[in-house]
Amino acid sequence: MPHPWQNTSLPAEDRAADLLSRMTLEEKLAQLAGVWPGSESTEGEDVAPLQHQVNEEVDLDTLLPHGLGQLTRPFGTAPVDPGEGAAALARTQARVAAGNRFGIPAVAHEECLTGFFAWGATVFPTPLAWGATFDPTLVGRAAELIGASMRAVGIHQGLSPVLDVVRDPRWGRTEESIGEDPYLVGTIGTAYVRGLQSAGIIATLKHFAGYSASRGARNHAPVSIGPRELADVILPPFEMALMDGGARSVMHSYNDLDGVPSAANRRLLTELLRERWGFTGTVVSDYFGLSFLELHHRVADTPARAAALALEAGVDVELPAVRCFAAPLRDAVRAGDVPEALVDAAALRVLRQKCELGLLDPDWSATPPALPQVVDLDPPVMREVARQLAEESVVLLANDREALPLAPATRIAVVGPLADDPAAMLGCYTFPRHVGVEHPDLPLGIDVPTVLAALRAELPDAALTHAEGCAPPGPAAAPPGATATSAAVAAESRLARASRVAADADVCVAVLGDRSGLFGRGTSGEGCDAADLELPGEQGALLDTLLATGTPVVLVLLTGRPYALGRWSGLLAAAVQAFFPGEEGGPAVAAVLSGRVNPSGRLPVSVPYTTGGQPWTYLQPPLGLRGEASNVDPTPLHAFGHGLSYTSFSWERPETDTATLATDGETTLRLTVRNTGERPGTEVVQLYLHQPVARTVRPVTRLIGYARVPLAPGESAEVHFTFHADLASYPGAPDGGRIVAPGPLALRLAASSADADVRHTVPLTLTGPERAVDHRRRLVCTAEVK
User: Fold this and answer.
1) Which end of the chain is more exposed for a tag (fewer CB within 10 A), N or C?
2) How far apart are the C-alpha atoms of 220 and 33, rounded to whole Å?
3) Which pLDDT value is given to residue 62?
4) CA-CA distance, 247 to 268, in Å (whole number)?
């Protein structure tokens, strides 16, 4: 007769509770711990903070009799053939299950920010590129494919998406974020959650909360924002992904929030997340985040105290390896310093999740679905979706001289240190840039065409010449015997060749940008924060040199953040922005340059005019805009939401059902969009809200809806936005709660957040009593294209 916890007809909660009641303290604590096999023996640079300082060699024989909660990065720690990796994970899981008396396997987790984090797996565009697509449906499809590939080889949990709203793009992890607007981040992130979890993978929301608002945009630096900014900008994406997306896991952030580290913040992890929002999933620590409480935040003096603070706050699982939730916590519980009930609550959540994953079922098998077949992690269907995402994410910033599309038979100088570099397509959370750089003899494992190679394929009748022009951005080792003089001569020689190549061409395509890395080993990525927003290295001087030739220059940026381009405003023939567009990024950029693909990307972050106006995002009240009180002008060169097309559109006949709306009411806003040009194209209609008067200071405008509208030449479509009064709520109550207040509103139909791009303004007045709302409010303005 099976025990109740083995009965698949019972609710997961009941099964988990029955199993918990049979476990010893050591067995319960084992479910709260992870191990990171192989990481302690890697000889390269750290890929996580404190990795080689506190990560110790794992003795599975000692751990396994009590069980194991999580296995960390079985594919993303070192290069492994996908089939061999799946087989090795299956052997480890069989060992874990056989080692404890209940036969419980571990949850295996992996990174999946730009695809399954494994050698040979498809590399999709980075999240900032997701934001540029304004296409949740396509992002959700990519996540579904990513999740299916992970599940097929035995992975259960993915450490994505990142829902940090960009507050200062100097932050190195800007590339991992979706954008500077909470609505865009929330809707795109929610689509990713749904896609990943539809494939049976637990999505993990990162980083809860405030991580991107650090002082000086420095990684791990303190965060001192107020409760209204937290409620209005930082938290809404998490609310959306939990309320609408059903995310099953949350990862706490490294930062402190007004002096309280997130890992020890009970108000954040328990009172808000669980008690107010009703979250029932697991809270996992960011890597070594519990040890941070002792070693960096210094709010604990021992691992035991760090464990107590985290457990009391609401952290369930210590990742990536066990240190605090092991013997130190066990001894604290037995000494009466920590209630065992806290351990029980966390272990119950972990066991319930394992039950939901099928890991407690009697017929569970360690052999994943992909075996024994050949494992292909980069199949054509995934490359196709990666290509679509990349194409939709490319933003045409400017085309002042109509230099684009490029003529099919012309002389083109392709210049720049990133023009023929596959790494230019890849963010720091891709296997080649995260792990592969520590294995220089390792093949990429995937085909990543460069911009130069893609242009040659795209424009076979064009005469292409190439020159690097300058050294790649980021730190680089000097060749043996090099001196300062020889380096200067080499730089001058590169620059002179680039100038000659450009002068002899009809048009020059300058491919510049970032090189991703970790902890200062790149110009973008985790721990690669920027002191300013000038183009890295010698690239600005190279661009000046190219412009001096008189040849029209088309700037192509492959970056992880926006850079200040005002210095070249009006001088460039055209400018194109791509944010680490993944393995199909080269062909996508080339297709936009040739005109085969009509660009439809829109900026998820503003492009600054100068670096002096930073930090800045478009979500500013009147005093945050240009004014007479300061000589510093923060106005961007290109606003959030900006993006051009090779065709033209008209926006006609906006109307709503009513000019007045109750504070709990709903109305439909309709707009006709027509392609008035000669090419097929996609317009991105953006809906912004302006509140002339409010109880607290409000942004002049903020995004509340958007729709992609694909149209053939001469074709039209009607866009319907369903606007609910909840979308006008803001933190205005004395206790910090959200309210919907009566009064005038303006619904702005716009091509970007800039005033000049507002196509129509529809006035609307809210009437009736002021309402208090919470996380159950309407979070999304649905859009239909008819």
Assistant:
1) N
2) 23
3) 83
4) 17
Provide the pLDDT confidence category of residue 325 given band limits of 50, 70 and 90. very high
CA dihedral over 15, 21, 22, 26, signed as positive or negative:
positive
**CA–CA separation, 599 vs 682, rounded Å?**
8
Q: Is 233 strand, coil or helix?
A: helix
pTM of this structure: 0.96
Place of tokens 């001569």: 489
* Token pair in block for residue 219: 């990684």
User: Which strands form 395-398's sheet, in the order they lie side by side?
Assistant: 395-398, 574-579, 553-559, 507-513, 411-415, 463-467
Measured CA to CA in angstroms, residue 627 lies from 115, 202, 631, 693 at distances of: 44, 47, 8, 19
From CA 531, how far away is CA 550, in angstroms rounded? 32
Please count the other Cβ atoms lying within 10 Å of the Cβ belonging to residue 487: 13
CA angle (696 as vertex; 690, 700 as ends), nearest 5: 25
Closest Cα partner for 275 from 775, 778, 779?
Answer: 775
**How far apart are the C-alpha atoms of 604 and 166, rounded to whole Å?**
9
Per-residue model confidence as pLDDT tens digits over 21-70: 999 999 999 999 999 987 655 566 666 676 666 666 667 788 899 999 99
Residue-averaged pLDDT of the chain = 94
Residue 582, sorted as left (phi over 0), alpha (psi -120 to 50) or beta, turns out to be left
Closest Cα partner for 472 from 522, 432, 519, 426? 522
DSSP string, 329-388: HHHHHHTTSS-HHHHHHHHHHHHHHHHHTTTTSTT--SS-TTTTSPP-SS-HHHHHHHHH
Q: What is the pLDDT of residues 93-123, one digit of tens each?
A: 999 999 999 999 999 999 999 999 999 999 9
Q: Which residue has the tokens 């055209």?
A: 574
Q: What is the full DSSP assignment across 94-148?
A: HHHHHHSTT---PEEEE--BTB--STT---PPPHHHHHHHT-HHHHHHHHHHHHH
SS3 of residue 466 by DSSP: strand
- Provide the 3-class DSSP secondary structure of residue 638: strand
* DSSP secondary structure letters along 43-97: -S--SSTTHHHH-----HHHHGGG--SEEE-TTTSS---HHHHHHHHHHHHHHHH
The per-residue pLDDT for range 176-193, each reduced to its tens digit, is: 999 999 999 999 999 999
**Residue 261 backbone dihedrals phi, psi, to 5 degrees:** -60, 140
pLDDT per residue as tens digits for the range 231-245? 999 999 999 999 999
Distance (Å, whole) CA 177 – CA 130 = 9
Nearest one of 29, 32, 52, 50 to 40, comparing CA atoms: 52
d(CA 702, CA 781): 13
- Alpha helices by DSSP H, 404-450: 431-434
Strands 411-415 and 395-398: unpaired
Closest C-alpha to 520, from 511, 509, 510, 531: 531
The span from the CA of 233 to the CA of 536, in Å, is 29
